[in-house]
Amino acid sequence: MRCTFSEYLFERLCSERGIPWNRIPVAETPTPDYELFPSNAPLVVEVKEIEPNPEERESDRVMAERGWGNVLSHTPGGRVRAKIAACSAQIKARAQGRHPSLLVVCDEARPLGHVEPYNIRVAMYGLEQVNIAVPPPGHGSPYGTGMSYGPKRKMTPEANTSISAIGALFMTSHSDIHLYVYHNKFAKVSLRHELLAQYGIPQFELGEPAPGRTAEWQEIVLAPQP
To answer: Among positive and negative, which fits the CA dihedral 186, 49, 152, 215?
Structure first.
């Protein structure tokens, strides 16, 4: 079966790290791409690729010619958000509320780009917004009361709970392949941290927010086993 670039990277990463994997056969109805640890409780995996849009391709072209690209604009997390929406149903059908799952997203054109940590975070939990309090007329000026996550969130207690985590797959300039995993705090079935930690996969979860700020990613550090 012909693989996409992202699937090639994922299969290579699993093989290089010794992670047991099987490709799920194509069926009449859409299915996820892989199962990891097939001899044990499987981890369901869907791999999605973010391809450059026309504006990004043009920027890359002129970058190669003159040394700098065009100014680009996009909604933070927008491309990851679209991948979550595209795969949620097929992951849910395979995981069946019993198995953990992982959506792996790769930006074909850049080492991180659309899958850098901030874009993953706001795709999952919503765009950051500043909250403003407006006093009654004559009682002072509007003032900020802090920040919170706002619109365009894909992970909630009711939505996309079948996705246990999102993985950012990328390759560095030295051809090393990396996978960073960001856990979904609303997942119906959590992905056990030790499952991927033994293969050197960095993992992150939302920490406690500082006063007036939104929660940010913190790396999960497991205690050494006795």
So the answer is: positive
Q: Residue 74's closest CA among 115, 103, 106?
A: 115
Largest CA distance in the chain: 70
Residue of 46, 125, 47, 143 lying closest to 81 (CA atoms): 125
Please list the helix, strand and coil fractions of the chain in percent, rounded to the nearest 5, in that order.
25, 25, 50
The residues with which 105 forms a beta bridge, in sequence order, are 48, 168
pTM for this predicted structure: 0.89
Residue 133: beta bridge partners?
143
For residue 170, give Cα distances in angstroms to 36, 175, 208, 217, 221: 19, 9, 27, 18, 22
In this predicted model, what pLDDT tens digit does every residue of 79-102 receive, in sequence order? 999 999 999 989 998 888 889 999
On whether the CB atoms of residues 118 and 80 are closer than 8 A, the answer is no
Return the closest-CA partner of residue 178 out of 105, 75, 118: 105
Q: How many CA atoms lie within 13 A of 75 on its CB side?
A: 13
Burial of 132 (0-12, 13-18, 19+ CB in 10 A): exposed
Residue-wise pLDDT tens digits, 2-15: 688 899 999 999 99
3 state SS of 121: helix
Rg (CA), the chain: 20
Tokens coding 105:
């997203």
Instruction: Determine the 3-state secondary structure of 143 from DSSP.
Output: strand
